[in-house]
Design brief:
Layout (H helix, E strand, L loop, with lengths): L1 H11 L10 H11 L5 H7 L7 E2 L10 E5 L29 H6 L3 H17 L4 E3 L22 H16 L4 E7 L12 E3 L2 H8 L1 H8 L5 E4 L3 E2 L2 E2 L4 H11 L5 E3 L8 H6 L28 H8 L5 H17 L14 H14 L1 E5 L13 E5 L24 H8 L4 E5 L19 H13 L3 E7 L22 H11 L3 E6 L14 E4 L7 H10 L35 E3 L8 H6 L17 E8 L3 E2 L4 E10 L5 E11 L10 E10 L4 E9 L5 E3 L4 E3 L3 E10 L2 E10 L6
Parallel strand pairs: 2-3, 3-4, 4-6, 5-7, 5-16, 6-9, 11-12, 11-13, 13-14, 14-15, 18-26
Antiparallel strand pairs: 1-2, 7-8, 10-15, 17-19, 19-22, 20-21, 20-25, 23-24, 25-26
Helix pairs in contact: 2-12, 3-12, 5-6, 5-13, 6-8, 13-17, 14-17, 15-16
The structure holds beta-D-glucopyranose.
Beta-D-glucopyranose binds next to loops.
């Protein structure tokens, strides 16, 4: 027995030097550990032992694996056996902005900084896996979880997910990319069966996951709750075995979403590695979690013992889990991490500043000057509401959260700031909305009174983290603003025409009131530094540079998923068909010529930019070449700012249906007032391919294409015609 322990300690590296092991060394160590494990021990490693951990093998010194949500900060400790918070007093953290905001920054290096910071916090909290980031594509504005994802464009999400993962994993903490795949709505998420063409799957819904695996080298991935082609995604042969593990060569761990496993044999054979969150009375939210009865526990052991499943199946799972353990808790170079540091708060503030999008600025209502004679009336519940509460699993317990009102009050020393709530929505709750203790009429009349007396009204409204808003477990019920806000905006406008709106949401909303507001700021959910970052932009200390990561349709019917009726969204409760196919978001608006209220890639600045000298390096390209687009950007205004130049491509006369244009590159340039800066975007010709489902291959069609260069999907400065030849150049 002693010999075994000694051997295991050597294998596990207890006495070895401090250098991180090479991949080869790790595999050799795993080879030597596997024969020491009993079947029972192996099976135990494949399922939960508590709400957020899976067991190790203590006799061999194999550590447990500890996980935490994700993705906007490290969630407060949850009890061993229930969803209740454990009530710790040392688990408060930094809340970072929602991933929609990160996506709006169009800033890859900021995504890395975000990953590093949240990874340091996860490490400090002794987590091995951070359950995030999320990269499900924004298909409809009704999805309750869009705020946790990176928008509607597969290229943008792919670019931003990679540095986030690298940043997290630098800390010896695994990122767990979720929810793989097609979890694009919360309605019936536990069972809805998604039917989608291979083209849309490969071109729209998979690229960000592929980038996360192939470029980000993510160490774990979370299966989605829903079904795809008749199998649950947590044990889906096509998604997990064929695509993820075989085609993309994923060598990490597939974790279920909590309660996402439904069958032992499928879990065993279709690529699942760790089962979490199963409710053993058959219900996801069961109070009784008898871990031994998990699909990958007792029943799996029995199948192995009866030789219904080969031992190599469990060995592969355990190999992956051990690999993750070596990359995380057994990495001798793993840093110690840190939490709530000034540096983390600054990262949170910077992401927020760069992600905020200025959507309208008539008569330059923004920035608002801090003048002694003026009164600014801040109206709206979202000016004081904690948005880290609610929303589902991404809920956070930040050490502090500066509200918009607090941030504005801290910034404006001369102007008089008044406040009225205006409307009320009820307490944040995951599964229900508590009745509001407030009287709507009196809230409104107080707000009207406050607005009347002010020089300027700043309405801070939008959605919140209640059920049926921006919240897990349900979709939105209406596209319009809830809680009587539309009527309130109308009445505020009636008494004060100097009206600006700050929209706090993770989703697009209908804006029938748009003409009544002079200015509109899309402010997302910004985390700990919300109020400061918002005040930075409202005051002009920071010039906004965010761009929308998804389209804002004028009305719901203008959204592609909606255009085909209920079978397309939300489905008939059993199945749904993604009938808009590849035409998601701006691809739909552009191709069908349906103007959105605000387009993908759109966002204003307090300065003006011009893009000139736009050219491609050649006009004819071979199939194996890269296209370089160059341009100059000039800041024509009086203050420093940043512009995001976007390059889209579109095939002229394709033999298959294609979107008018697709984002293929962007560059964000910070430019001083009056200065010019050159920029370039490089696109591989191979990235112009479409997925040909008749042969299951990516195909670059030879012929003519347009390169569209501009600063929004609907604001193209120049179109360049290029040709792609059939041949490769040697
Ligand atoms: C969510 C996941 C989350 C998990 C653990 C599930 O309900 O879908 O995103 O990571 O719970 O909290």
């Amino acid at each position: 027995m002693k010999k075994v322990i000694l051997l295991a300690m050597i294998c596990l590296g207890t006495w070895t030097s401090k250098a991180q092991y090479s991949e080869k060394e790790i595999e050799a160590k795993i080879d030597s550990i596997l024969p020491l494990l009993t079947l029972k021990e192996k099976v135990a490693m494949c399922h939960a032992q508590s709400k957020f951990s899976s067991p190790g093998v203590s006799r061999l010194g194999i550590p447990e694996v500890w996980m935490s949500d994700g993705p906007h900060g490290v969630r407060a400790e949850i009890s061993w056996d229930s969803w209740n918070y454990a009530g710790w007093t040392n688990d408060s953290i930094t809340a970072f902005p929602a991933l929609t905001c990160l996506a709006a920054s169009f800033n890859d290096s900021l995504s890395y900084a975000y990953g590093v910071a949240v990874g340091e916090e996860a490490r400090y909290r002794e987590k091995d896996i951070l359950l995030g980031p999320g990269v499900n594509i924004y298909r409809t504005p009704m999805n309750g979880r869009n705020f946790e994802y990176m928008g509607e464009d597969p290229y943008l999400a792919s670019r931003l997910v990679v540095p986030y993962i690298k940043g997290v994993q630098k800390n010896g903490v695994a990122a767990c990319v979720k929810h793989y795949a097609l979890n694009n709505q919360e309605r019936w998420r536990d069972h809805i069966n998604v039917e989608v063409s291979d083209r849309a799957l490969y071109e729209i819904y998979l690229p960000a996951f592929k980038a996360a695996v192939e470029e980000g080298e993510a160490w774990s991935i979370m299966g989605a709750y829903n079904q795809f082609r008749g199998q649950h995604c947590c044990h889906n042969e096509i998604l997990l075995n064929n695509i993820l593990k075989n085609d993309w060569g994923f060598d990490g761990v597939v974790v279920t979403d909590w309660g996402g496993a439904h069958d032992t044999k499928e879990s065993a054979l279709h690529g699942l590695d760790i089962e979490m969150g199963t409710g053993t009375n058959g219900l996801t939210y069961s109070k009784v979690n008898a871990y031994e009865n998990y699909y990958l526990a007792g029943p799996f052991l029995e199948m192995l013992e009866n030789k219904e499943v080969e031992e190599s199946i469990v060995d592969d799972k355990v190999r992956r889990i051990l690999r993750l353990i070596y990359r995380t808790s057994l990495n001798p170079n793993r840093p110690l991490g840190s939490v709530n540091t000034t540096a983390h708060h600054e990262v949170a503030r910077k992401v927020a500043q760069e992600g905020i999008v200025l959507l309208k600025n008539k008569e330059d209502i923004f920035p608002i000057k801090d003048e002694t004679e003026i009164t600014i009336a801040v109206i709206g519940e979202n000016a004081t509401r904690m948005m880290t509460r609610g929303g589902g699993s991404s809920e956070l317990k930040p050490q502090f959260e500066v509200s918009p009102l607090e941030g504005i009050k801290a910034r404006y020393k001369n102007a008089k700031i008044t406040y009225a709530m205006g409307y009320a929505s009820g307490a944040p709750a995951y599964a229900r909305v508590n009745p509001s203790p407030y009287d709507a009429d009196s809230l409104k009349s107080i707000a009207i009174d406050v607005a009347k007396k002010a020089d300027l009204v700043l309405f801070v409204g939008g959605l919140n983290k209640n059920h049926h808003q921006d919240c897990e477990g349900g979709d939105r019920k209406i596209y319009n603003l809830p809680f009587g806000q539309e009527a309130l905006i109308d009445e505020l406008y009636a008494v004060n025409k100097n009206l600006g709106v700050v929209m706090v949401s993770g989703n697009a909303v209908a804006m029938p009131w748009l003409s009544k507001t002079k200015g509109l700021i899309q402010a997302w959910y910004l985390g700990s530094m919300t109020g400061h970052a918002l005040a930075d932009v409202v005051s002009g200390d920071v010039n906004p540079s965010g761009k929308l990561p998804f389209s804002f349709p004028k009305k719901l019917e203008d959204n592609g998923a909606y255009a085909f009726g209920e079978i397309s969204y939300p489905g008939d409760s059993i199945m749904q068909e993604y009938k808009e196919d590849i035409l998601v978001g701006y691809r739909w608006h552009d191709t069908k010529k349906i103007a959105p209220e605000f387009a993908f890639g759109y966002g204003l600045s307090y300065t003006d930019f011009s893009i000139s000298n736009i050219q491609s390096d050649q006009s004819i390209y071979a199939a194996n070449e890269a296209i370089t687009v160059s341009f100059d950007v000039k800041n024509e205004g009086g203050i420093t700012g940043a512009e995001v130049v976007q390059v889209y491509t579109g095939k002229i006369k394709s033999k298959v249906p294609r979107a008018l244009k697709e984002l293929k590159g962007y560059q964000k340039l910070a430019i001083a007032s009056g200065a010019s800066q050159p920029g370039t975007v490089t696109i591989n010709v191979s990235d112009l391919a479409y997925y040909d489902d008749s042969i299951s291959e990516w195909v670059v069609e030879p012929g003519d294409y347009y390169l569209y260069v501009g600063n929004a999907s609907n604001n193209i400065t120049k179109k360049i015609r290029i040709s792609i030849s059939k041949k490769s150049r040697s």
